[in-house]
Amino acid sequence: MALTIESFDNAQTLTREFAAKLADILETGIEARGRASLVVSGGRTPLALFEALSQKDLDWSCVDITLADERWVDESDDASNTQLVKQNLLVNNAAAARFIPLKSAHDDAAEGVNDAEAGVASMSQPFDALILGMGEDGHTASLFPCSTQINDGLDMSSGKTCIAVTPTTAPHQRISLTLPAILNSRNIFLHLTGEKKKQVLNDALDGAAEVQKPVTAVVNRAPVTLMWAP
Ligand SMILES: O=C(O)C(O)[C@@H](O)[C@H](O)[C@H](O)COP(=O)(O)O
């Protein structure tokens, strides 16, 4: 396990330093390969980071952005991660970035998996940076321990980049990047705030089964940087 921990005194400092680090990574990717790719998570934690990152002065027209997971709701629904990204990240300078949604017009997430995979395949990979959140049940992206699809999501030989997930402890059908797709990243960040989440992570890393605490499946297999503040 290679977990690098970057702790900050407060959320404001974390936001500032994290946004600067991501901007550097994206610039490096653009310089090296012409385009850069960024995968972000939904939830409440990244809101301030999105706002700070959106103001960074870089060639956003060369940046592709997608989500680590999406709830299968219309973009007009407040639960939509696409809405969250469009309102908070794809603004200011970052409005020039290309957004690749995981959600499509299909009724069910399962029917949308092929379209989501095609979108992801259009991005430069390995992803330059991928940011994960974590729930207090140890889920990351939408790899929920409660779901019947968890083994498929963690299957390193599935050949799939996206999976439909129906959590029983959270609302909405989801679509999630799979574990192999998540790991196909140059820089993986876990973005957490608060003592509670740090404790959940520490407990999970203390030998929990990966299907019970899916965040550990990522940390067990790749270098991950934890960006944390109280
Ligand atoms: O629900 C989503 O869309 C996610 O991407 C999910 O994995 C999220 O990152 C965690 O549930 C943490 O959510 P909070 O930041 O709201 O605590």
TrEMBL record:
EC number: 3.1.1.31
Stored InterPro entries: 6-phosphogluconolactonase_DevB (IPR005900), 6PGL (IPR039104), Glc/Gal-6P_isomerase (IPR006148), NagB/RpiA_transferase-like (IPR037171)
Domain (Glucosamine/galactosamine-6-phosphate isomerase) ranges: 10-222
A Pfam family that the UniProt record links to this protein: Glucosamine_iso
GO molecular function, one term: 6-phosphogluconolactonase activity
Keywords assigned: Hydrolase
Keyword Hydrolase: yes
Catalytic activity: 6-phospho-D-glucono-1,5-lactone + H2O = 6-phospho-D-gluconate + H(+)
Enzyme class: hydrolase
Pathway recorded for this protein: Carbohydrate degradation; pentose phosphate pathway; D-ribulose 5-phosphate from D-glucose 6-phosphate (oxidative stage): step 2/3
GO biological process, any: carbohydrate metabolic process
Function, in words: Hydrolysis of 6-phosphogluconolactone to 6-phosphogluconate.
Family according to the record: Belongs to the glucosamine/galactosamine-6-phosphate isomerase family. 6-phosphogluconolactonase subfamily.
Family matches, as NCBIfam families: pgl
UniProt name for this protein: 6-phosphogluconolactonase
Provenance organism: Alteromonas halophila
Gene name of the record: pgl
